[in-house]
Request: fold
Amino acid sequence: MEDRIAAPLPLGDLLVEGPFPPHHGGCFGCGPSNPASPRIVFERRGDAVRGTFTMDERHQGAPGVAHGGIIAAALDEASGAVLMPLRLPAVTVKLDVSFSSPARLHQELIVTSVLSARAGRKLFIDTELTDGDTVIATGRAIFVEVAPEHFQRYGATPGELSSVGA
Reply:
């Protein structure tokens, strides 16, 4: 990912180095109570966020490999996770994914994200999914900052998404 950006933007000091809590229990990407979740576990590493997870037959596309949709979902989830240290409520408005290699099931994968730019309410986030030294996919996301009430209009209770300030 280093060749895609010059330097990540700082993530502040609201959430220190180490593991993050899930966005919420039912989150598709990281939620421990969602049976379809690959349960991505995120942690802060300086101004980057790193997530680890393993997929199984629930995430299968062709035999033995993950469906492209779950790969895109992992990149989207990592994009949202980079906002947690900033406690910034935002939503995905665009996600461009480039696939490089199949993602094997039952293999620990690493997804990394950085906030690469910001322009007003727009946040530009770069992601990379790897299996060891093999790049599986890269993503470029645009998120837009929203008021916490945005999530409440769709069913969240106040404070339920405190991980992103909502």
User: Anything to note?
Assistant: Residues 18-160 form a domain with the Thiol Ester Dehydrase; Chain A fold (CATH 3.10.129.10). The chain has one domain: 18-160. Residues 68-81 form the longest helix (14 residues).
